[in-house]
Amino acid sequence: MLRVDSIIHATNNQSPLKPEQLYALLNFSKRLEQFFQTYNMPHTLYYERRDGQYDRLGIEKTRIVLPSNVIRAFASMFLYEPHRTTRSYKNLRAKVGDEIFLEGHKLEPYYASAYGLYRLDWLFRNESTRFASKYKPARFHVLLAARLLINKADLPRMNSSAMADRANEIITALWNDGYDELFLQAIGVVDEIAGSNMERDHIRQKPITDALLMHFGLRPRNE
Q1: Is the separation of the CB atoms in 167 and 108 below 8 Å?
Q2: CA 9 remoteness from chain centre
Q3: Burial classification of residue 70, based on how many CB atoms lie within 10 Å of its CB (0-12 exposed, 13-18 middle, 19 or more buried)
Q4: Are the C-beta atoms of residues 108 and 163 closer than 8 Å to each other?
Q5: Paired residues of 64 in beta bridges
Q6: Which of 147, 131, 148, 133 is nearest to 187 (CA)?
Q7: Would the pTM count as exceeding 0.70?
Q8: Cα torsion 34, 35, 41, 45: sign
C-alpha cells in the first residue's frame, strides 16, 4: 500500500511539492481522472490530477474538480466527517492511501460525492432565493444529510459491488430533476440541528455531525 506520507518522505529532498500535487503519482488518481470523464454531458466532471491540466481546453471551470474537494466531499458523505473539511483537513489528508484514494476502492462513491458538491455549489450560485449563501459553511454537512435522506442504511465495504450499487443510487438521485428538493430537505435538517446558527465555528464541529447522525437514528462515529 502506497501512502502519501511515504511519497512525501521519498521526494522531500527533491522538490517542495504540496501533498495535493503528490496525489498525481497515485495510480488511483489516474483511474479516477479517467473514470470521471466516462459520464456523458451534462454529468461529466474533470478530476484535476495535475495543476492546470485543463487550462487550455476551454472546459467550464466549475466542472473541474480539485483533489482537495474530492477528499472533503468523499469524507463527508462516506466517512461521516464533514466537520473535518476545514480546520482539521490535514487529518483527512493523512488518510489518503488508507481510508481515502485506496487501491481497490470503487470509484463510484468518489464521483457521487464530487457530483453532489458540484450540484450543491451550483444551487448556491444560481438559486440564491432558496439556497441562501448563509448555508454555504454547512455544505459538507448538507452533503451528508442528503446521502442519508437517500439511504441511511449502513454502508457496504468500499471495495464491494454493493458499494458501487449504493453510490449509483445516490448518483441517480443527484441526476434527477428533483435533486434541488433533496438538498432543500437536507438544508432543513442541518438548519434544525444547528439551531439556525450557520457560523463556521459552530457548524463545523463534531457535535453537529453527531447530532445529524442521531437525527437519522445512527450512532456517532468514534475518532
Answers
A1: yes
A2: 27
A3: buried
A4: yes
A5: 46
A6: 131
A7: yes
A8: negative
> What are the residue ranges spanned by the domains of the chain?
4-215
Neighbouring residues of 135: CB distance < 8 A, sequence distance ≥ 6: 124, 142, 187, 190, 191, 198
Tell me the per-residue pLDDT of 132-184, one tens digit each, with 9 for 90 and over.
999 999 999 999 999 999 999 999 999 999 999 999 999 999 999 999 999 99
- For residue 71 the three cell numbers come to 477528499
Closest CA to 196 of 152, 111, 132, 114: 132
DSSP class of residue 169 equals: H
The CA distance from 119 to 157, in Å, is 26
Give the C-alpha separation, 218 to 199, whole Å: 25
CA–CA separation, 199 and 163 (whole Å): 34
CA torsion, points 52, 54, 58, 64, in degrees to nearest 10? -90
